[in-house]
Amino acid sequence: MTETNPLVRKLGAFVALSDAELAVLASLHKRRRTFVAGRDLVHQGQSDQAAYILASGWACSYKLLEDGQRQIVDFQIPGDFLGLRSVLLHVSDHSIEPVTDIEVTEILVADLLDAFAQTPRLATAILWAASRDEAMVVEHLVDIGRRNATERMAHFLLELGARLALVGMGSKAGYACLLSQYLLADALGLSAVHVNRVLRQLREGGMVTFRDGFVAFDNYHQLADFAQFDPSYMDQRGPLLR
Amino acid sequence: MTETNPLVRKLGAFVALSDAELAVLASLHKRRRTFVAGRDLVHQGQSDQAAYILASGWACSYKLLEDGQRQIVDFQIPGDFLGLRSVLLHVSDHSIEPVTDIEVTEILVADLLDAFAQTPRLATAILWAASRDEAMVVEHLVDIGRRNATERMAHFLLELGARLALVGMGSKAGYACLLSQYLLADALGLSAVHVNRVLRQLREGGMVTFRDGFVAFDNYHQLADFAQFDPSYMDQRGPLLR
């Protein structure tokens, strides 16, 4: 296990991990599994399933309403937990679908408790990661409640870029983006046509271009101003616990 | 410390707490403080503040946008953490305002880490509480993204009732509700006039009456059907860890 493991990179932003803690983390990465794109690996309402750490590929978590509407809650990238919340809440409150083929490691609740018992600092680091996930959901709530469509898209693209940068998959120049316009629409509460229009506005404003699977920040600072993007909720300032 | 402590009641729904764990929880309740209604105790952007456990009274967490719009993210009731996320993320991503005069106990990050080291099961219980909070924010995201105003209000009143019931302050008959229509409006992304209209609809539909500081469920099951309220995300089925 080296710095190339995305979960280690991510938790390392919060806790300076000791060799013992790295070993406990490595022991969580035993059961590798793969899932194909487009087929749910967790279903809303399912009980007592495992949680996963995403090793490669992207996924999305979503909720379906009875009338068939879908709200994407968040996207997961390498180093993120899938279903951590569900494993603690007995019943999954959402579904998880791989956006691409993905590779994950499965974690049983018992493994997690063992890991916490061995190293309480790891528990704090995972609580930190969960807090950061919650902070992102809160931002999405503000996005949908109070930001217009163009600001919402700008904010979303900036946040995703900052998350990818933390695991070495993006920079302020841009990043490879595996999301279709349909997925963006379901995440931002817009129609696919509206997504198209909003992306054109941002491109013509010289701020950001999303084309051929790549998001290029044409003017990062202007875009961040426009979206009122304050990345402090992402907390990438470096380890709090040394 | 007895079952009358709301945090003990709440965590007890997830973990059957031992005497040793109860003692650690009690040790977290040392520093009592009070705050008056309407004056922020945590400011968005503030760094390195403490977290709190709410002992009595109600609070709300919210975000302000640069243009002055406000989005209430959630309300806190006795037994809830205030600012737990902020204490781990260095910088608070939201403000917290007491809705009533409140009594809290202050928790420093170091105390929390000590508590986790002494009893990893407590860490898991607190991670569970954080997961439950996140599940509620996710529901609010779905509320605002995909539910109409009347469903949104119905869902909100049901969720708040279920949370209050867990700490012994409500039932399926109803609960004392300390929220003004202005607070409801800022939480649900509605105007105060719209809140009024929606509450009248629900009352005239024979489902729920919010009047004189009391929410009375006139027909709980019809209301739950109407709002598609599935309380499983609240996870009140009884302890997972015994």
UniProtKB/TrEMBL annotation, chains A, B:
GO terms for cellular component: cytosol. One of its GO terms (molecular function) is DNA-binding transcription factor activity. It comes from the Bacteria. The keyword Transcription regulation applies. The keyword DNA-binding applies. Keywords: DNA-binding, Transcription, Transcription regulation. Residues 147-221 form the HTH crp-type domain. Gene3D superfamilies: Jelly Rolls (2.60.120.10), Winged helix-like DNA-binding domain superfamily/Winged helix DNA-binding domain (1.10.10.10). CDD domains: CAP_ED. This is Crp/Fnr family transcriptional regulator. It comes from Thetidibacter halocola.
